[in-house]
Amino acid sequence: MVFLANEGASSSSSTCRWKYDVFLSFRGEDTRRGFTTYLYNALEQKGINTFMDDKLPRGEEISAELLKTIEESMILVIVFSKNYAESKWCLNELVKIVECSENDQMVLLRPIFYNVEPREVRNQLGNFGIALANHEKEFKDNMGKMPRWREALSKAASVSGSHYEEGRTTYKSEYDFIRGIVKEISSATFNWRPLYDTEYLVGIDSRVKDIKSLLNIKSNEICILGIHGLPGVGKTTIANVVYSIIAHQFEGSCFLEKVREKSINCGVIQLQEKLLSKILQDNYLKVDSEFEGTNLIKERICCKKVLLVLDDVDNSEQIKKLLGKCDWFASGSIVIITTRDKHVLTTLPKGHLIYKVKELCPCEARDLFNMHAFHTNEPKEDYSKLAELIISYAKGLPLALKVMGSDLCEKSICEWRSAFEMYKNIQHERIQEILKISFIGLNKKEKHIFLDIACFFKGFNKNYVVKILDACDLYPDFGIERLIDKCLITVEHGTLWMHDLLQQMGREIVQEESEGLENRSRIWCYEDANKLLTRNKGSDKIRGIMWCEPEPIIVSLKASAFKKMENLKFLIVKNVQNSKKLKYLSNELRWFEWSGYNFSLPSKFCPQKLVGLEVSNGCIRFAKLFKQGCHYKYLKSIVLERCQSITRLPDLCAPNLERLDISYCENLIEIHDSIGLLDKLECWILSHCTKLQILPSTLKLNKRFILGNCPRLEKFPNVHPEMKCLGGFTVIDSNIKEWPLSLRYLTEGIIRLQIWECENLGKFLDSTNKLQLLEEIDTPILNRFNILPEYFGNPLLQCHGEILIDLDFCMKNDFFPALRFITIDCSNIVSIPECIFRLSRLEEIYIRTCKELREIQNPRLPRSIRHVEIIQCPSLLPQSSSRLLNQFGKILGILPNRVSEGARSDMLMDLFDDSESESESVSETEDYYILLPGTEIPKSLKFNHQSFGNSISFKVGCKFPKLAVCVAFRSTEAHIDGRHFYVHVSFNGCKQCFRYISTNESYEELWLFSKSLGQLKKPNLSEQNQVEVEVTCKIQNRNVSGHPFELENHTGFIKWLGVNVECICCPQKSDITYLLLPSDRNGCGSSSVLNDTSYGLKGFLGDLNVSLSAPNNSELLALLPCPNMDHEVSNIVNDLRLLKGIHNDGCDLSLSLNDSNERESEPPLFPDLTNGFDFGFAQPNLELGLGVSSGFHLDSSSLAHANVYDDSDFYMGSSSMAHDCVNDDSDINMGPPPKKERTS
Question: Which residues are identified as catalytic?
Answer without folding.
Answer: 93
